[in-house]
């Protein structure tokens, strides 16, 4: 029980420390960018004991899910488990650096990565889902950090009333209790949107300090009770993990992979065997490469195939165009799934 008591004290002390100035808060966010799947209390304890951790799990999870063994002599990170018959006890997690592959490892760990060249379209789709301007001039003249910040701002505005309700309920004895309602709203919106943007940028392997300064986070000192910092920390991680990265970028990246797979299968099915087709991505734009593999009359056939697989993007939907008939690559409606196609009228598309 003494160990549990020590870890509880560590949790409370570290929680006070991370809001005691903007630099402390940013150091915590640098760690939490990789642990946003965990509850806020666990994030604090991981930061306090292994701030460089990148992917944590229990020994059982490493063994059964990935067939990775924990290194001899590795020390687990103690976290507090409150779901053990009413009495808190410790459970231990290990960072991926504390483990190694074995002969039983079939599918190893693949940590989430963002590739600016390959995943540009995923960012665009995420912006569209939040009704953020996707004007070409805006995208061309703005950096990726600014676009992430705009997404975080939009998401913060959507969540703001819930956050303010929680703050009003738990602000006793904090500096937030002394603020006027308007100031509370302004400070909360500012620190939450910047924290979510910073954490997202960090996880995307960007450099958030090229966009932000430490002074941008100085208002974190107002969240100076455990309840207050828990509200800020939990909402930040939920926004980043649930709606920007896992629920946003990862969803859009996976959707694009599926669309590309379906598109290539659909088109390949109608190609002659001696014609090969492949897709590539650059700066978020698709390109198709069609090659003749040596048949007679290859050049003529190649021209016919290129005409046959002409692609057009209309309102975010990719179509295969043949003799004026538009066939959607991804079938979304029952009409399309039954083989329905479209003929465009009224000018160029």
Order of helices and strands: HHHEHEEEEHHHHHEEHEEEHE
What sort of overall outline do the alpha carbons produce when their principal axes are compared? globular
Helix content: 40-55%
Query: Within the largest sheet, what's the order of strands?
Result: 8-9-10-11
Largest sheet: 4 strands, antiparallel
Which structural class matches the secondary elements? alpha+beta
Kindly state the number of beta strands: 11
CA-CA gap between termini: 71 Å
- Into which percentage range does the β-strand content fall? 15-25%
Mean pLDDT: 81
Model regions low in confidence, pLDDT < 50 over at least 5 residues? 279-290
Q: What is the rounded Rg?
A: 26 Å
Tally the helices.
11
Quick overview of this protein structure:
The protein has 11 helices and 11 strands. By secondary structure, the chain is an alpha+beta fold.
How would you portray this structure in words?
It is built from 11 helices and 11 strands. With 349 residues, it is an alpha+beta fold. Among the domains are: 140 residues, no CATH class; 39 residues, no CATH class; 35 residues, no CATH class. A hairpin with a 2-residue loop joins strand 6 and strand 7. It starts with a helix and ends in a 6-residue tail after the last strand. About 3% of the residues have low confidence.
What is the topology?
Layout: H1 2-18, H2 22-32, H3 40-49, E1 56-57, H4 59-66, E2 68-70, E3 77-81, E4 89-95, E5 99-101, H5 120-129, H6 136-140, H7 144-170, H8 181-203, H9 226-268, E6 275-282, E7 285-292, H10 298-308, E8 310-314, E9 317-322, E10 325-328, H11 334-337, E11 342-343
Antiparallel strand pairs: 1-4, 2-5, 3-4, 6-7, 8-9, 9-10, 10-11
């Amino acid at each position: 029980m003494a160990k549990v008591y020590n870890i509880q004290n560590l949790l409370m002390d570290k929680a006070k420390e991370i809001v005691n100035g903007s630099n402390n808060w940013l150091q915590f966010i640098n760690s939490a960018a990789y642990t946003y799947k965990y509850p806020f209390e666990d994030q604090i304890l991981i930061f306090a004991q292994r701030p460089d951790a990148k992917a944590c799990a229990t020994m059982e999870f490493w063994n059964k899910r990935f067939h990775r063994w924990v290194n001899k002599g590795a020390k687990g990170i103690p976290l507090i488990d409150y779901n053990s018959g009413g009495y808190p006890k410790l459970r231990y997690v290990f960072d991926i650096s504390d483990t190694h592959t074995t002969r039983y490892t079939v599918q190893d760990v693949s940590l989430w990565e963002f590739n600016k060249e390959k995943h540009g379209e995923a960012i665009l789709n995420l912006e569209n889902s939040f009704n953020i301007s996707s004007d070409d001039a805006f995208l061309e003249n703005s950096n990726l950090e600014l676009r992430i910040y705009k997404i975080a701002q939009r998401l913060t505005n959507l969540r703001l009333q819930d956050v303010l309700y929680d703050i009003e309920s738990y602000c006793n004895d904090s500096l937030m209790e002394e603020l006027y309602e308007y100031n509370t709203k302004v400070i909360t919106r500012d620190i939450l949107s910047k924290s979510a943007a910073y954490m997202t940028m960090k996880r995307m392997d960007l450099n958030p300090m090229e966009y932000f300064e430490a002074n941008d986070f100085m208002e974190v000192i107002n969240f100076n009770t455990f309840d207050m910092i828990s509200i800020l920390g939990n909402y930040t991680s939920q926004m980043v993990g649930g709606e920007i990265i896992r629920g946003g970028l990862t969803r859009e990246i996976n959707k694009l992979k599926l669309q590309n797979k379906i598109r290539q299968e659909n088109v390949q099915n109608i190609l002659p065997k001696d014609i090969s087709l492949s897709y590539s991505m650059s700066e978020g734009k698709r390109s198709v490469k069609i090659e003749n593999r040596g048949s007679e009359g290859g050049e003529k056939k190649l021209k016919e195939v290129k005409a046959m697989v002409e692609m057009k993007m209309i309102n975010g939907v990719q179509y295969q165009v043949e003799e004026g008939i538009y066939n959607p690559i991804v079938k979304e409606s029952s009409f399309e799934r039954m083989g329905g196609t479209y003929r465009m009228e009224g000018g160029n598309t």
